[in-house]
Design goal:
The protein contains 12 helices and no strands. By secondary structure, the protein is mostly helical. The protein has one domain: Orthogonal Bundle (ABC transporter involved in vitamin B12 uptake, BtuC), CATH 1.10.3470. The longest helix is centred in the N-terminal third of the chain and has 30 residues. It starts with a helix and ends in a 19-residue tail after the last helix.
Length: 307
Amino acid sequence: MFSIEVLGLLLSATIQAGTPILLATLGEIITEKGGILNLGVEGMMAMGAFMAFLGTYLTHNPWAGFVLGGMGACFLAFLHGVVCLIFRGNQVVSGLAITVLGLGLANFLGTPYVGIKTVGFDKLDLPLLKDIPFLGEVFFKQDVLVYFSLLLAPVLYLLFEKTRFGLRLKAVGENPYAARARGIKVFFYQWVALLSGAFLVGVAGSYLSLAYTHVWTNGLTAGRGWIAVALVIFAFWRPFRAIWGAYLFGGVMALQLRIQALGSNISSSLLLMLPYLLTIGVLLLACFKKKGLDAPAHLGLNIEPKD
């Protein structure tokens, strides 16, 4: 039966489901601001999720797993950078290969650990704030990574709009040749964008295994990486819009799980399709609103080395 209490639980679940998508989207925004197209987000999330689980399982320290998850994604990003930035390979093909590699490695290495639980990030009960009716249950009983993701969006906005580094990074994504003529080290900024963005993608995977489930299972990402890639377009490469978009997708995921739990006669297969139908709708919406998009002008295009 629908009530205020049920609505609070649904909104709380929406935030939890949307957090890994938000982290991955913010990471991809950083990478694409530097002009690099990374379609390997799904594979990087999977690798990050497994490495975070493994690190936590071995050390019993979720923060060690947190860092290791980010580094696992950075390893795959490094391979992507070697192909695209050093050998100037096709960024689309390389990204798809990274997805296949990441998913395959995570499933292969993780198979012996399927079903094993580990410690992770538990929900925080913030003093006083947790007791606020309705809002306390929804916003102030979340884990630390939820608050980290929400603080990250304004930090990235300030980085892109108010700092020299961020403005130079955007210049590299818009016109790397003009940036190079201005004395900006183009490849340095692209490497920083690629690796730092990948670290956040790995952290998104870490959230899935250390906060969302506390257990390892193959296929844990379940397409969230692809949703994050689409959400970058939906957010028009703007960090604040990514919050609303991620929670929109998270709400759809939480809703379909709630509907299944209530024993609805609707086919579970149809319910599982909802997030991906929304993804297609987002892409179609972006196609109708090409004017005003903030996509970097040189996104996905390789740069010729300096003579």
